[in-house]
Amino acid sequence: MNLLRTFVVVYETRSVTQAAHVLYLSQPSVSYALGKLRKLFADPLFLRNRAGLEPTPVAESLYPRMIQAIQLMDSVVQSATEFRAAETTRTFRLMMTDLALMALFSFVVKAIQEQAPLAKIEVTLLDVAQLEDQLRRNEIDGAIAVPSFSPDVVVRDHLMDMPYVGVCAASHPRLSAAPTVPELSAEQRVVVSGALGHQHVEQTLGQLPGQHASSIALPNYSVVDETIAATDSYCVVPLFLGDMFVKRSPVRKFILPFTLEPGHVGLHTLRRVAPSPSVEWLREVITEALTAYPYPQHIEDYDNSWFTS
């Protein structure tokens, strides 16, 4: 199994150095394991180029079968012991955006600690590019996020629809509670990094007739309310965040004059050959806990009263 894991991590990282770091091994140990694998399969498996290690066609064909074998063995080992939430000292590792942490984490951590008081919880910020690989390597147990991932790798549980709302300074001289597209297009807007999973918002805004390019770009939502309060700019944000901004800053919400697909928030876990009892428990706890979230779960249940201050 150690040889299989070494192959998979080298394949995913394209680096002996990085693989050694992930596996907590020395570089010579990883190189030795690769040597044994090359002899076993009578193939070099990885060839060095400027970008790192490039897998050969044989390695490409082996990778999905290696992953399946590892997942099966992990699941068999985990299933051998009945999972008891009340007794577990397991560390549950989640990946979330800063928005999910602000909006949802209190519900999640409360539910986990009520049922598994001895368990530990670690949260890292969402990294869309690394999510699938980290699930495969069991570095995380799940992720709460808007983007979709490969259904061959990830099981997605729908948690809620997250509509968007416009926000601007409470004293904005031109924007009403329901501005028109031309009125909105004439205003300066704040854009937040698409790495958080809301790329479709900027894509939709960019297609509006007469829309000006964004002049303020921020890495996350943490200072959006302070920014729009100090300027005649606006931003499109998830509804719950707009409500939070209204409570803490001199800003107001307004109805968007165009259709914008809501963010579909999901819980993403690894698709396994045999289910992991602890991860299945975690899925159930999180989905049940978020039914208490004080916003409708489906976009059809919202009306305009939700979108104005």
From TrEMBL:
<protein>
    <submittedName>
        <fullName>LysR family transcriptional regulator</fullName>
    </submittedName>
</protein>
<dbReference type="InterPro" id="IPR050389">
    <property type="entry name" value="LysR-type_TF"/>
</dbReference>
<dbReference type="InterPro" id="IPR036390">
    <property type="entry name" value="WH_DNA-bd_sf"/>
</dbReference>
<dbReference type="InterPro" id="IPR036388">
    <property type="entry name" value="WH-like_DNA-bd_sf"/>
</dbReference>
<keyword id="KW-0804">Transcription</keyword>
<dbReference type="InterPro" id="IPR000847">
    <property type="entry name" value="LysR_HTH_N"/>
</dbReference>
<keyword id="KW-0805">Transcription regulation</keyword>
<dbReference type="InterPro" id="IPR005119">
    <property type="entry name" value="LysR_subst-bd"/>
</dbReference>
<feature type="domain" description="HTH lysR-type">
    <location>
        <begin position="1"/>
        <end position="56"/>
    </location>
</feature>
<dbReference type="Pfam" id="PF03466">
    <property type="entry name" value="LysR_substrate"/>
</dbReference>
<dbReference type="Pfam" id="PF00126">
    <property type="entry name" value="HTH_1"/>
</dbReference>
<keyword id="KW-0238">DNA-binding</keyword>
<comment type="similarity">
    <text>Belongs to the LysR transcriptional regulatory family.</text>
</comment>
